[in-house]
Amino acid sequence: MARTKQQQREETIQALSATARRLFAEHGYGNVGLETIAQTAGVSKGALYHHFTSKADLFRHVLADVQHDVGEQVAQAADAAQDAWQGLLAGCRAFLTAATDPEVQRIMLVDGPAVVGWQDWRALDKESSAQHLAEALTALVSEGVLADRPVEPMARLLSGAMNEAAVWLAHSPDPAADLAATMDALAPMVESLRN
Question: Which positions fall inside the HTH tetR-type domain (predicted)?
Fold first, then answer.
């Protein structure tokens, strides 16, 4: 059965995205050209430009996928916890653990803010992990676990701390040891938010 144009389009985008993700993770944004991505994906450079206007556009697509995947890991960890409080801690831990993955480090934490700019990077973060954090904090305020105060400032402060820790872990010479130390510091910090 012949593939439809839509199926062909989706397959091409998927091939380009998966190839670019691997190459950006292995070599960094600045060291990967569109010609290499197209050749490795098995498509023409014209096909690449048909779907993405530039290397930065393709990278933004890959970054959104990586941030979405991290957001899913955070949500799964939080949902598996026995209550909302443990879910908040589990989600924070899942985010920090994801930050030690070399692919996530390179694409999301090192190249991401530099390539798309801080404001766009924050917007993508808000759509993924930060959204789950705000939802968790809102539920905890509703349950009376956290003091009844505005959620947005709490979410921004905690998200900022988590992102700073993640960037630090991405540049750490000993990420395993620094992740353990960060996890030890996390619980008392989050505990201070409790009612």
Answer: 10-70
Q: Please state the length of the chain.
A: 195
The residue ranges of the chain whose pLDDT is under 70 are 1-2
CB atoms within 10 A of CB 99: 24
Domain ranges of the chain: 1-52, 56-192
159 Cβ partners below 8 Å, 6+ apart?
A: 125, 129, 130, 133
Per DSSP, the three-state class of 194 is: strand
In contact, 97 and 74? CB cutoff 8 Å:
no
HSE-CB for 170 with a 13 A CA cutoff: 21
What's the pLDDT tens digit per position in 69-78?
A: 999 999 999 9
CB count in 10 Å sphere of residue 59: 21
**pLDDT (tens digit per residue) in 142-189:** 999 998 999 999 998 999 899 899 989 888 899 889 999 999 999 898
Residue type, position 167, single letter: V
Rounded Cα–Cα distance for residues 23 and 8 (Å):
22
Decide: 163 and 87 in contact? Cβ < 8 Å. Answer: no
Q: Taking a C-beta distance cutoff of 8 angstroms, is the pair 91, 116 a contact?
A: no
CATH C-level class of 56-192: mainly alpha
HSE-up of 16 (CA within 13 Å, CB side)?
A: 28
